[in-house]
Write a structure and sequence with these properties.
The chain is α+β, with helices and mostly antiparallel strands and 1017 residues long. The chain is built from 35 helices and 21 strands. The strands form 6 sheets. The chain has a 6-stranded mixed sheet with strand order 14-15-13-19-20-21, with helices on both faces. A 4-stranded antiparallel sheet has the order 2-1-12-11, with no helix packed on it. Strands 6-7-5-8 form a 4-stranded antiparallel sheet, with helices on both faces. Helix 31 (904-917) packs across helix 35. Residues 693-884 form the Cas10/Cmr2 second palm domain.
């Protein structure tokens, strides 16, 4: 078994070294060829030439003998790597015209193939990256270019980088070479060319260097990952067969949605992401993390922690990682970064065993966590942790069968191969038969019935000035789309068969989830109604640890785990990093006050004498409130005591609302002291109202399933994926050869690279970009960001700006900041640049929808959360996706709701808000305009809306003075144009609503009442 395991890891290492990382930079420049550089040197450094012996017949296997001894790799291992390379290349990119040429050998002249001249690209002279999802071209030549790079220097730097990693491993365990550690190290840190070795020439581009200069839409690291995945599956299977395994855990929405406070929402999403990792970990341990094609795991903090602590990679490798630096929950480890499903390449004979191992592992981990939670609860409650207590049985039973695990596996052996040596001559009879039940209908099912396969299944011949060239000879990698399609359909079918053991719940139910009994040490207590529970586990917890359970809450197993997860995970991270991790949650009240606190700190943070006295009197009763991160940065230059005071003001206001104080004169004095202090820095110091509203934002990528499945509407053509130089040569041949032209216009088939590109983009978006936008550019607080999902809390004043910025960041393109720098983040042509890090986003074709709710800070969170979900659904359904929807829930009753597409509607809303806030514009401008709209029986505008525009401009202008007056006409024109886009019978109502929303957003503060006339008070 040990030899088999070693062979697996050796094969995967050989696969990772079959092409050098610098391939794109040395191709057609280095006389030695790309394969004789770094790759050959590293295989010798690792001692492949000393691994085993090969008995080959030189007369029958001369080419293989030459290759094996040239590379120093055993023959069986080389065959696995070679086949994996062919499959990976075919799965990820088109093949190219290969001209037949004659070469001289010892046996005489031999016919071989070479790439046609017009398809050869000197990439350093034309360094173009193509976005694989949108065809957008990112021309590095316009950003400095690479023509001055010296290929000798590049080879030396890559060899130095990789050999230093191998040397560090050898120093850690000099007696025996650990091939598994070598594979994990090369996978994780191969793309991390350190700055000190980089001399500032390549930087983050090293991670995006293309695998093939002719199709620069996927990186060399993507190709090495896929080759390693296939070769590992081949090596671990007795018959050398691979399968595609798809697996999902759940349920998702119901698990996250059960929440009473912000901590619950974060805990639900983060715990689900952690369960996802626990499901993926058995695959990573058995086959390596590169076996998982989706999601991409490289650079995910939780995976890094596993590599360091459980795989024993040298700690110095991780010293520069962001997760090593954070001492608060801003640490990337606290981000929910993994989806609840994965796709992996596994040995065909082990697919079932691996899936069952995943189920056992993830459920076992959760059961162990449940017991840890009980231990913490019982200790905090001062109760003895007796294994016979009823709560232990409850925990085991309530967690039984959770999470649900669904899986499907499809072997590539369903594809018949006529020419085993070249892996060509494909027969799809068995594959088609397996797909038929899931697709139905006549003809070939799924991908097998597409035009793409009709072209790809046969060799295309290219006639180039009388020279016959083979343009395409498909191998099984080309059929990845069909195998993936079948696996997805089979997984969907598996989800419909939900076998579970029914559990009996006799007593009172959990106050949060409502589905299971609450945990108790005495089963008799489950018969007690809420008013009679005086000495339970949960009443003790509420008295001693209210963060775990508020008064009256009695929780079941899963809600209890969610409630304690923030504490347990913070402790786990603290131990891993050897530091205290500060967990903090910005309260809704603090978020409502964020802008006023920020302004107060910016003006020095002076307290009125009355406030100073109140703070001194109640300091021991006040818990310091967590402040938004941007506000804390603004306060760095302020006096430390002033910053502490800012964190006490929301707490003082909350104390004034306590039942024992709220109705007293003292409570009124406490509130007045805070109001007057914050008003002291305002232009109108007599206006001492406090902001009482905050906002929640929920954004979700549109049609993610379609993006992952790669339908025609979400794919680029083969021609569009070519380098511009290749496109030119291709077009010349396509003019006279219809079959070639048809091939170029065909949509790209689904590929592993597509999954890696999407996963990589979503990782960078959620782990890096989202937090920067919400917490560095705005005064917000990120609740969670996982993949394409974003949930954040913001001051009302920041909401519209944050929504638009996140939408641009998701696509990686901001039309107002092309090629420039905006608050440290550049978004251009599907890429993001932040702090020198170049990241590929989802691309300009990708869209996202966003729901937002503005509510009073005392509104029940569960109700606000429901409104937020409804708003998001409005954006996706009523808005037709790629839209936003804002709901304003007024404290005084009633609500406003606006749904529109991104772009001009949001820009107009922002500009109207700014107009209403401008000096010289009456605070009652919107109110009078609404009175005019409500008080007249206006006909629905038709045609060009000239009458509406004229009257609207008049109403806005009469409430403005000076320069502000000139803004009325352009605004009226834009509002009229937007109104005319609405259904004819709803235009005036839409305009009223639009102005009402803008007016509410324009208020300097939003106090407890909520009608439009408040703007004039």
């Amino acid at each position: 078994m040990t030899n088999t395991i070693n062979t697996l890891w050796q094969t995967k290492v050989a696969a990772r070294l079959h092409d050098p990382a610098e391939k794109a930079l040395v191709l057609l420049r280095d006389p030695a060829g790309h394969e004789n550089g770094t790759s050959r040197a590293l295989t010798r450094l690792l001692g492949f030439h000393a691994i085993g012996t090969d008995t080959l017949d030189p007369d029958n296997d001369e080419a293989l003998v030459r290759t094996v001894f040239k590379k120093g790799i055993p023959a069986d291992m080389y065959r696995h790597v070679q086949r994996a390379d062919w499959w990976a290349a075919a799965a990820d990119r088109p093949q190219w015209p290969m001209e037949e040429i004659t070469v001289s050998t010892k046996k005489g002249d031999e016919r071989t193939l070479k790439v046609a001249p017009w398809a050869q690209v000197r990439w350093t002279q034309e360094p173009v990256l193509i976005h694989p999802l949108t065809k957008d071209q990112y021309d590095l030549g316009k950003h400095g270019g690479l023509s001055d790079t010296d290929f000798h220097d590049i080879k030396e730097r890559n060899f130095s980088h990789l050999s230093s990693l191998i040397t560090a491993l050898h120093k850690q365990s000099p007696e025996v070479h650990d091939w598994r550690k070598t594979l994990l190290t090369l996978w994780r840190f191969g793309p991390e060319l350190s700055e000190e070795n980089d001399n500032g020439k390549l930087g983050e581009l090293w991670k995006l260097l293309p695998a093939d200069t002719r199709i620069p839409d996927h990186s060399i690291w993507d190709h090495l990952d896929l080759t390693s995945a296939f070769s590992g599956a081949f090596a671990a299977d007795p018959n050398g067969e691979a399968a595609l395994l798809t697996l999902a855990i759940g349920p998702v929405q119901s698990f996250i949605a059960a929440a009473r406070k912000m901590e619950d929402l974060w805990a639900g999403s983060h715990l689900l992401a952690r369960l996802s990792w626990e499901a993926m970990k058995p695959v990573c341990e058995r086959l390596g993390p590169d076996a998982i094609l989706f999601p991409r795991l490289r650079g995910v903090p939780q995976v890094d922690l596993w590599l360091r602590d459980e795989c024993d990679l040298p700690a110095q490798f991780f010293e520069s990682c962001d997760w090593q630096k954070g001492g608060t929950d801003a640490n990337p480890l606290f981000a929910a970064a993994l989806p609840n499903r994965f796709v992996a390449v596994v040995p065909a004979s082990q697919a079932r065993e691996i899936a069952e191992q995943v189920q056992t592992a993830v459920r076992g981990w959760l059961q162990a966590l449940g017991q840890t939670v009980l231990t913490e609860l019982l200790e905090e409650a001062g109760l003895t942790n007796d294994g016979n207590l009823h709560c232990h049985q409850q925990m085991r039973e309530q967690l039984s069968g959770f999470p649900e695990v669904h899986w499907a596996a499809v072997p590539f052996s369903l594809i018949g191969i006529g020419n085993k040596e070249r892996q060509t001559g494909l027969d799809t009879t068995q594959l088609s038969a397996a797909m038929q039940p899931f697709f139905g209908g006549d003809g070939d099912p799924g991908f097998l019935g597409t035009n793409a396969w009709k072209l790809l299944q046969k060799e295309l011949q290219l006639d180039d000035a009388g020279k016959k060239s083979t343009f395409f000879a498909p191998n099984p990698g080309v059929l990845y789309p069909a195998v993936h399609e079948l696996a997805e359909r089979a997984l969907a079918a598996a989800k419909t068969v939900r076998s579970f053991a029914q559990t009996e719940q006799k007593g009172w139910r959990c106050t949060l989830g409502g589905e299971t009994e609450w945990l108790t040490t005495d089963a008799a207590q489950l018969k007690l109604p809420a008013g009679q529970r005086t000495d339970t586990l949960w009443t003790r917890i509420a008295a001693k640890r209210p963060a775990w359970a508020k008064k009256g809450e009695h929780l079941g197993a899963l809600p209890a785990i969610k409630r304690l997860w923030p504490t347990l995970f913070a402790d786990e991270v603290g131990k891993a990093l050897d530091k205290d991790i500060g967990r903090f949650v910005v309260s809704t009240h603090t978020m409502a006050l964020a802008h006023q606190l920020d302004q107060w700190l910016a003006h020095g943070g002076q307290c009125t004498p009355e406030l100073s006295r109140r703070l001194e009197r109640y300091r021991k009763q006040l818990d310091t409130a967590a402040l938004p991160r941007k506000l804390m940065r603004h306060a760095r230059n302020a006096d430390a005591e002033v910053v502490k005071t800012a964190a006490l003001l929301p707490a003082l206001l909350d104390l004034s609302s306590d039942e024992s104080i709220s109705e007293t004169e003292e409570a009124a004095l406490m509130r007045s002291a805070v109001r007057q202090t914050l008003a002291s820095v305002r232009e109108n110091q007599n206006d001492d109202r406090l902001e009482t509203y905050y906002s929640l934002l929920l954004m979700d990528g549109d049609r993610m399933g379609a993006w992952l499945s790669g339908g025609d509407d979400y794919a680029i053509t083969y021609r569009e994926s070519f380098h511009p130089q290749v496109q030119t040569g291709f077009d010349k041949h396509a003019q006279s050869q219809p079959q070639i032209s048809q091939y170029g216009q065909q949509k790209r088939a689904l590929s592993p690279n597509r999954h890696l590109a999407i996963s990589g983009a979503l990782n960078d978006f959620s782990l890096t970009v989202v937090r920067h936008v919400v917490e560095n550019e705005h005064l917000g607080r990120l609740i969670y960001a996982g993949g394409d999902d974003v949930f954040a809390m913001l001051p009302v004043a920041d909401l519209l700006s944050a929504m638009q910025r996140l939408r641009h960041a998701y696509s990686g393109h901001d039309p107002e900041h092309k090629g420039g720098r905006h608050a440290g983040l550049t978004l251009h042509q599907g890429f993001a640049i932040l702090d020198g890090k170049l990241m590929r986003m989802m691309g300009s074709k990708a869209t996202a929808s966003c729901g937002a709710v503005i509510a009073h800070h005392q509104a029940p969170l569960a109700a606000v959360r429901r409104e937020l979900h409804v708003a998001e659904q409005h954006a996706k359904n009523e808005g037709g996706r790629d839209a936003f929807s804002v709901t304003i829930v007024k404290r005084s009753g009633g609500a406003l709701q606006l749904t529109a597409k991104w772009g001009e509607p949001l820009h107009a809303l922002q500009d109207l808000r700014v107009f209403l806030q401008t000096d010289g514009v009456s605070r009652r401008a919107a109110y009078h305009t609404l009175q005019w709209l409500n008080g007249h029986e206006l006909p629905q505008p038709e045609g060009d809306g000239a009458m509406l525009q004229t009257l609207l401009a008049y109403q806005l202008a009469r409430q403005a003075q000076g320069k502000a007056k000139t803004q009325a006409e352009p605004l009226a024109q834009r509002l009229t144009a937007l109104t005319l886009e609405q259904p004819t019978d709803k235009r005036i109502d839409w305009l009223r609503n639009f102005i009402s929303v803008a007016e509410f957003l324009a208020r300097e503060v939003r106090s407890n009442s909520g009608n439009a006339s408040e703007a004039g008070e």
